[in-house]
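I'll show a sample.
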Amino acid sequence: MPTDANRIRLVLALRSAGITDAAVLGAIESVPRERFVPETFRDQAWEDIALPIGLGQTISQPRVVAMMTEALRVSKRHRVLEIGTGSGYQAAVLARLCRRLYTIERHPALLARAESILKELGFTNIVFRAGDGMQGWPELAPFDRIIVTAAPAEAPKALLDQLSPESGIMVIPMGKTADSQHLWRITRQGDRYDREQLAAVRFVPLLPGVADDSGEESRLPRL
């Protein structure tokens, strides 16, 4: 089980890595990461490492979660779209900071597990959807913020279109290969999209469509 020392050590490591936003650090400290980590890796939950969660997906290392969240510049006024629910950990951090979070996952089995955990933890400002993240959530657009937790070669046009034209921000990893991925912040002003490269990263690829997870629930790692 995690201790206060584990949490404090992680927060100090994140500060040393350049994360300075107190709200982001507070959210990281308050979200019980061990709830989103498979039982086999529970003793590593508060280390700054990525861990497998099943179906070829991972829970991102806290430093990357903190860096992306800080780059997103989220406030309690914002409606945020997350592409790639995964374990639900990034969703939990964001939901502490925004007004409402809409999260899409292409693996229904992962989405069901994440939704169950997040509801057990008392989150009431998250809306879940199994779907093709590359298409976004057009009927609820525009979004003040969009975060993408898998890497396309280029930002999908559908997501750019769904970003608020009034200083909307998207944080997204992009690269044609795993070795060429970088994290980008895209800020929209009307029809103009300003791009800022932030850091080298490595994410699973962003894929189209909805995965066929028939029977996969029973094969996911135990939490």
